[in-house]
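mind reviewing this stuff:

——
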Amino acid sequence: MVDVGCGRGTWLKAFKESGAQKVVGFDGLWNTQANMADESIAFYPVDLNGPIEAPKGEKFDLSMSLEVAEHLAPSSSETFVSSLTDLADVVLFGAAFSNQGGENYLNERPHTFWASIFLFRNYVPFDMFRPVFWGDDEIEFWYQQNTFFYVRQGSDAFERITGNGILPMKNISFMNCVHPYLYGKYIGNPGFRKSAGFAFSAGLSAVRRWFKK
């Protein structure tokens, strides 16, 4: 697998420990091989705003980029997605939602913005993570809200995923639902996240009680 905007390669290290046979990282010219969290990571310094190609045009089982695209120039958005899709048929992607806020955030977008670029390249979104991790306080809210799989239609991976009953999103507008923590920032109410989490838990408990009747 390959991570574009890998930092020290902590995601790559985790995938290697989970069985990935080869892990490759790309990041800015400020980063080096010596910074990698695992010596088995093959690191390549690149300009993330420009086209990115693997050595010898290699293809991977998975390319990923989480919470990176918001730091890039807006004009590089399509090029960045094109690089990710050129690297693999399956892309794990997430980027900061509009007005999420953070240091050097130049390119915050609604998720449908990125989805439209992926769809143009025949990569469809799968919402596999938010139903599992949404509301889990042990996971940062931006990972809960922003993370999607994009898979090239017609690829072997697409056939395997859909063959197991996992279907792509039909209504990509639903991608833009806002996490309670971020909504709390919008309305200037820092206690909203806690109250929203309580309301969700209370509602879930009520549903469970109803089914037990």
